[in-house]
Amino acid sequence: MKRWFWLAGALMLASCGTFTGQVRGVPSREAVGFLAHDPAGAAADAHPTPEVDQQLSWETSQICTLGATTIEEERLPAENDGKLVDRLVRCKPYGFNMLGISFAGLVPF
Question: What is the rounded average pLDDT of the residues 40-59?
């Protein structure tokens, strides 16, 4: 009986070793978009004003707590010669730490 427990334990350990820690997802749905109105953005190629950039950064920090990578930023026409700033970001992945030991790649979240 003791041998069966060792065999079962070895098989369980071997099956865990084949898990890569990555969960397949749909890449087009891994991004989050944020939108802000820039009333002073008359020029189409200009960067957002600091106030609008700060607002978009704050909105991003409320969703992506570990930071984010900007995928694209688009400026769209709005009323009164303003612009809408449409920012698409991808959140940085979460890591799993316990007692100072990182289990990154072992846990799929």
Answer: 79
